[in-house]
Design goal:
heterodimer, A: 276 residues, alpha/beta, Rossmann fold, 2 domains, 6-stranded mixed β-sheet, 4-stranded antiparallel β-sheet, 10 helices, 10 strands, B: 282 residues, 12 helices, 43% helix
């Protein structure tokens, strides 16, 4: 049997000096090619979960495996990190050089990739995130959103199978955020497994699966429309809904038959046009 | 009396080049208003608000706070005392050993009697919803992200500013954290008449709370009006890298499909009523 891409087997984790379990007996399987969102309020355990995927954090009990390799075994960490790329919240903490193409080349260089191959990987990665024209520019001239795209390109140059975005859009403006989501959708369409930890419910409407974390446990694991129509769950886990879902709710209260499937304003408009 | 900004320009210069951050900006912030500032990254929002309490000195143009000019040495300190400033991610600036000491730092510097300092700290903690009994002796670093943010805000409130400037105060907070900050700002306005000046990317929050909206684009004023009037320019705002409330966006989409959505249908409830009527009569 082929091992699952990512497997959490009864994973528990506590931060140093804390009695509270940041992850509490979490079991989870993520299949190759999925586009998964992980949501939850501050301190729910969503980032802790993300940091377990590439062995940045190690379980106190239980096991995390990536392609069958356990993160607990130190020899597995390098191959796991070649499979899993993580992009974090603050773009300024992730860029190591001053010139953009050098930054993207940094990872493959460290892994001993031959120079011609590096050139190709850097160009491909910059193409994918739409930043090829900026290759020779200085990093400090970029906006936050552009820096995050460079951070992603740096990961892509390592040719990972899995990209984990750990609240990577939190510090971006709305345009930066939507551009980044478009980039992720494109990468997913090309076969990359994308796992997106986020606060912003607008970002998860295109995911095929949403995992809701609450007090270190998985409170729900379902499709976005099921999550957003479960009022008890939303309240219990203090989750927001996309503004479009709130708008649809207002329209329904007024007596307009808008369906639960309308998670975006464009979809509401389409449904209304059929009624008008 | 208001804050007036008159013909303000500012350039960032380094060895190689100079970048225009603000260009001939003129506006007034009325006392008691909820004044929102929006603009894409690099539009000059932060540079603008950092001028309001003299953090960046005016090099071109003038600013007065309740008639006190920031350019005048003597008046500057009066003006600055009126304006409280909450930076982006203010929790990174917590430093003292206890929450109490951190919040007390500002009032102590005013050389207030100890009892007054204590009273201000406890009042500020109550305002931001940090129970003094539970939190005063804690280290700021033991607090959760949302609690840290509120502790940092309490430190500014303890200075009792008449004008409170906040640079994206809800960034990175979860829904409960965001709502509690917005509720606090509304309470400050209604209970103490505090003027709120807030940079925000959330057009929904701006639509719900702000009385005025200033939109910056490349250091210049693109719009300055009541939010519902500014949002009438939805397509232009999208072009500037901003968004509009979803109700406004829905109205725009329906108009593009040929429906005669009236201007008065500029919020979710009004739009819903108009749509219901239209469908019932169809």
């Amino acid at each position: 049997m082929v091992p699952a891409l990512i497997q959490f087997d009864h994973v528990t984790y506590r931060y140093e000096d804390s009695v509270k379990k940041a992850l509490d007996d979490v079991c989870l399987t993520i299949a190759d090619g999925s586009f998964v969102a992980v949501v939850g309020h501050n301190g729910s355990g969503k980032s802790t979960l993300a940091k377990h995927i590439n062995g940045l954090l190690l379980p106190e009990s239980g096991e995390v495996t990536v392609n069958g390799l356990s993160t607990a075994n130190e020899e597995n960490i390098l191959p796991i990190r070649q499979t899993v790329g993580i992009v974090f919240q603050n773009p300024d903490n992730q860029i190591v050089t001053t010139i953009i193409e050098e930054d993207v080349a940094f990872g493959p260089e460290n892994m001993g990739v031959p120079p011609q191959e590096i050139r190709k990987r850097v160009d491909d990665a910059l193409d994918t995130v739409g930043m090829r024209d900026y290759a020779e520019r200085a990093v400090h001239q970029l906006s936050g959103g552009q820096k995050q795209r460079i951070a992603i390109a740096g990961m892509l140059a390592l040719r990972p199978n899995i990209l984990v975005m750990d609240e990577a859009t939190a510090m971006l403006d709305p345009r930066g955020r939507s551009d980044l989501i478009e980039t992720l959708k494109k990468l997913h369409a090309h076969g990359l497994t994308v796992i997106m930890v986020t606060q912003y419910m607008e970002e998860i409407t295109d995911c095929d699966r949403v995992i809701v974390m609450h007090h270190g446990k998985i409170a729900a694991d379902d499709q976005p429309e099921a999550i957003f129509s479960d009022q008890d769950l939303l309240k219990e886990c203090s989750l927001d809904v996309p503004e479009a879902v709130r708008l649809a709710e207002t329209l329904r209260t007024t007596g307009l038959p808008i369906s639960d499937h309308a998670l975006k304003t464009e979809q509401i408009a389409e449904e209304l046009c059929r009624l008008l | 009396m208001p804050i007036t900004v008159n013909d303000l320009s500012y350039q960032y210069t380094d060895a190689a080049h100079s970048t225009t951050a603000l260009s001939h900006v003129t506006f007034t912030i009325e006392e008691g208003s909820f004044f929102a500032i929006a603009g894409h990254t690099g539009s000059g929002k932060t540079t603008l608000v950092q001028h309001l309490n003299g953090l960046i000195p005016c090099t071109e143009g003038t600013i007065t706070v309740d008639g006190h000019s920031l350019a005048d040495k003597k008046e500057r300190s009066i003006a600055r005392a009126l304006v409280g400033m909450v930076f982006q991610y203010p929790e990174y600036q917590l430093f003292a050993e206890t929450v109490f000491d951190d919040i007390a730092f500002g009032p102590k510097n005013l050389k207030l009697p100890e009892n007054d300092v204590k009273e201000r700290v406890l009042k500020s903690m109550e305002l931001v919803g940090l129970d003094p009994e539970q939190f005063r002796e804690k280290s700021p670093f033991e607090l959760s992200g949302g609690e840290k943010r509120r502790a940092a805000l309490a430190g500014v409130l303890a200075m009792q500013p008449k004008y409170l400037v906040l640079d994206e105060p809800m960034a990175g907070l979860d829904p409960i954290g965001r709502q509690s900050i917005l509720a606090l700002l509304e309470r400050l306005r209604s209970e103490f008449g505090t003027t709120i000046i807030m940079i925000s990317h959330s057009m929904e929050d701006i639509a719900r709370h702000a009385t005025m909206l200033l939109v910056l684009d490349h250091g210049q004023i693109a719009y300055l009006d009541r939010p519902e009037i500014v949002f009438e320019h939805a397509e232009e705002l999208f072009r500037l890298g901003l968004s509009v409330p979803q109700a406004t966006y829905l109205g725009m989409l329906l108009k593009q499909k040929g429906f005669d959505v009236p201007k008065s249908a500029n919020n979710a409830e009004a739009l819903a009523r108009w749509l219901k009527e239209k469908i019932d009569h169809a």
